[in-house]
């Protein structure tokens, strides 16, 4: 390990924009100082003149090697974390899954086996609770001791991940005592299944009907319900992948009441819409995810929610399935299209484009992509900021470089890009993970196994 000096750049964190040099020793940031005011020497000097120096991104919602609908998401921990690094993300929090009838620990051990020795960047785990009972409720305490401090439940996918209101309430009550954070996929899955059955019976089989049956009102209803259950339980709740303005209105109302209610959205809901789901020749299948894409008019509400902090985090819900061989399982039946989209490589760039377009400020970009997810998931200030004592997860970012997003040039293990042909301004130039170069001068110099498991503390927003 070596001392690294990053000099001449504009350091941007969630709270500050400073023209300072950054000194890294071993794996940590050790000092910041005005250029010319110090006599630091270093083994490696990175010239960041004209560039931003930002914390590595924290993507709090990914699904690597996830089984779904008879297939597996296309990115392994090796390919997915490498792609994340290319996009300026230096920490992911993925979802381990409790097997039906099995224990939480069994699910966690399975995901550790997948990730151990393969990741290019650091990683943590949430736990999907697919079988809420007395045993798994008790196991929550032990997982928190192992650094898995958040637990995801679903009001969607009956027969797969679905939990009823009683199970959700019990899990929230347990979290209220052990400090865990309950994450909710909020859609009324029971009602959606009825609408799916009816749509197929009418011969409505194209990908666009995926969005039409998963109605915004059913996202809003489930969001309202899980908020009130959390209020009864006396515990916080974090609603994942908010896509509908009606669901956001429920979060806003609850936060106005002073409740510990939090929400994330994803780039696909900010930049894509039902117009994509309606693309002809089955192309719309590329954009099938749940919650689904909404009509364009929902985007303004989501951007406003990010500016007002009614939405705190932008994660990707990265869950890629190839168009050929996976998405095409649903030709003739939209309900068989694997739900999920690629995006772990694109998040930081797309959000910088939002800065360029005037939707958010530079500091808010870093807040929603780095600092807020680090705080939400018990990683701050080790992750999500540039400050003495923080891990040296640092990105040198060129705000003037132009690029065109394309499957021909991305590094995710999937055969299409959801943002194909989109021209954006800004590009990652250099990425350090705990002081070690992963991306350097537009080349990957990292290695599988550098990334380490990071046990997480409790949510720091409470």
Q: Could you give the order of strands across the largest sheet?
A: 8-11-12-13-14-15-16-17
Roughly how many Å apart are the termini?
Answer: 36 Å
Query: How many runs of DSSP E, i.e. beta strands?
Result: 21
- Helix-and-strand structural type: alpha/beta
Strand content: 15-25%
Helix percent reads 25-40%
* Global outline: globular
Query: Which spans of ≥5 residues are poorly predicted at pLDDT below 50?
Result: none
Specify Rg, calculated over alpha carbons.
Answer: 21 Å
Number of helices: 13
What does this molecule look like?
- This protein is of the alpha/beta class and 462 residues long.
- It has 13 helices and 21 strands.
- It has helices at 77-86, 104-115, 134-145, 165-178, 189-201, 208-213, 216-233, 245-256, 267-271, 274-277, 297-308, 347-356, 362-376, and strands at residues 4-7, 10-12, 17-19, 21-25, 28-33, 44-47, 52-55, 57-62, 67-68, 71-72, 89-97, 122-128, 150-154, 181-185, 237-239, 261-265, 313-314, 394-404, 423-433, 436-440, 443-444.
- The chain has an eight-stranded parallel sheet. It has a seven-stranded mixed sheet with strand order 3-2-7-18-19-20-21. A four-stranded mixed sheet has the order 5-4-1-6, with no helix packed on it.
- A hairpin with a 4-residue loop joins strand 2 and strand 3.
- Helix 3 (134-145) packs parallel to helix 4 (165-178), helix 4 (165-178) packs across helix 7 (216-233) and helix 7 runs parallel beside helix 8 (245-256).
- The longest helix has 18 residues, at 216-233.
């Amino acid at each position: 390990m070596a001392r690294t000096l990053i000099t001449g750049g504009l350091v941007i964190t969630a709270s500050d924009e400073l023209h300072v040099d950054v000194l890294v020793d071993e794996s940590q940031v050790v000092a910041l100082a005005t250029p010319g005011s110090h006599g630091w020497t270093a083994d490696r000097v990175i010239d960041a003149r004209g560039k931003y120096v930002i914390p590595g991104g924290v993507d709090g919602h990914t699904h690597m090697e996830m089984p779904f609908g008879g297939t597996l998401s296309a990115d392994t921990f090796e390919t997915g974390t490498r792609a994340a690094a290319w996009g300026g993300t230096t920490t992911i929090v993925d979802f381990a899954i409790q097997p039906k009838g099995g224990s939480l620990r069994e699910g966690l051990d399975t995901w550790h086996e997948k990730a151990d020795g393969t990741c290019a960047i650091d990683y943590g785990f949430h736990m999907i609770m697919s079988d809420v009972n007395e045993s798994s409720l008790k196991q929550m305490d032990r997982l928190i001791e192992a650094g898995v401090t958040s637990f995801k439940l679903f009001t969607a996918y009956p027969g797969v991940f679905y939990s009823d209101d009683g199970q959700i309430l019990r899990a929230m009550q347990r979290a209220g005592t052990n400090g865990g954070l309950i994450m909710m996929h909020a859609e009324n899955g029971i009602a959606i299944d009825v609408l799916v059955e009816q749509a197929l019976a009418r011969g409505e089989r194209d990908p666009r009907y995926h969005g039409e049956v998963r109605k915004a009102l059913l996202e809003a209803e489930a969001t309202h319900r899980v908020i009130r259950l959390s209020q009864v339980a006396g515990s916080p709740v974090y609603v994942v992948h908010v896509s509908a303005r009606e669901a956001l209105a429920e979060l806003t109302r609850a936060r106005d009441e002073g409740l510990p209610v939090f929400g994330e959205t994803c780039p696909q809901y900010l930049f894509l819409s039902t117009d994509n789901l309606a693309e002809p020749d089955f192309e719309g299948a590329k954009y099938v995810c749940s919650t689904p894409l909404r009509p364009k008019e929902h985007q303004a509400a989501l951007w406003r929610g990010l500016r007002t902090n009614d939405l705190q985090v932008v994660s990707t819900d990265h869950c890629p399935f190839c168009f050929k061989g996976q998405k095409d399982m649903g030709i003739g039946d939209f309900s068989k299209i694997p739900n999920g989209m690629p995006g772990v490589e694109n998040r930081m760039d797309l959000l910088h484009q939002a800065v360029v377009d005037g939707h958010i400020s530079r500091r808010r970009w870093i807040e929603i992509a780095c600092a807020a997810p680090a705080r939400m998931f018990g990683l701050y200030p080790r992750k999500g900021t540039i400050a003495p004592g923080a891990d040296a997860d640092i990105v040198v970012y060129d705000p003037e470089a132009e690029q065109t997003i394309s499957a021909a040039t991305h590094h995710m293990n999937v055969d299409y890009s959801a943002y194909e042909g989109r021209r954006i301004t800004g590009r990652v130039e250099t990425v350090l993970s705990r002081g070690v170069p992963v991306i350097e001068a537009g080349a990957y110099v990292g290695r599988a196994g550098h990334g380490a498991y990071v046990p997480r503390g409790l949510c720091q927003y409470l």
